[in-house]
Amino acid sequence: MLERLRRWRRDRILQHAGIEPALWTHLMDTLPVFAGLDRGERERLRQLASLFLHDKDVLPLNGLELDPSMRAGLAALACLPVLNIGLEVYRGWRTVLVYPSGFIARHSYTDEHGLAHEETSPLAGEAWEGGPVVLSWDDVECSLELDGYNVVLHEFCHKLDMSNGDANGMPPLPTGMSPQEWAAAFTDAYEALCAAVDGGQETVLDPYAAEAPGEFFAVACESFFERPDVLREAMPAVYSLLSRYFRQDPCARLPGGP
């Protein structure tokens, strides 16, 4: 009975508040990250994005206005990682805050001596455990090229990582995936990246990935969806695990893929 009610609610939302098919087709044909999705995947993503926009409050700030195309594009990027997982993993929080451009974040912490400190830093995006996702629209627009940088994918993959607590690079894994295998592969790749960054070497991933294991996971996810062939060649074990976790194989969606 409960499942029947859920399906009824879902169908009602999609019927009355679904993203218009013509707008959706334009987005899918325009944004390169979606180019390899087949018709069924595009429709499933449209439904997820429509439900996302219904259930989450996407709030523009400081005079920013978000038209239906902007909202739909943001929701599409947010839902791409959960295309084959489902929106349930985004439960427990409700709000997406969108600034026109980069914003200043203030964080307070207490050091080991009991002294309180406050830090400020300019950010393009931020995800809070149990709280909102915060984005800069300028940086969202800069995320539309397949260059490995995508602030929406980055912050929403942090949200996936936070599903079991801190963003530490170990999200809740589906049944059948080994936490030990995950930890070993990601630790090896993270330590190799840190060594390359410390040595001044050029790296496949943005050097920001060396900041912490949680940042490595989020940056690797950006590359997984935007430059999958590059990530698979440089870090095959990481690519394989992400493919099993997301239940997607972006390399297969590239031109000439299987």
UniProtKB/TrEMBL annotation:
It comes from the Bacteria. SUPFAM superfamilies: Metalloproteases ('zincins'), catalytic domain. InterPro entries: MetalloPept_cat_dom_sf, MtfA_fam, MtfA_N. Coiled coil: none annotated. It comes from Aquisalimonas asiatica. CDD domains: Peptidase_M90_mtfA. GO terms for molecular function: aminopeptidase activity; metallopeptidase activity. It holds the Pfam family Peptidase_M90. This is Zinc-dependent peptidase. GO terms for cellular component: cytosol. Gene3D superfamilies: Collagenase (Catalytic Domain) (3.40.390.10), Glucose-regulated metallo-peptidase M90, N-terminal domain (1.10.472.150).
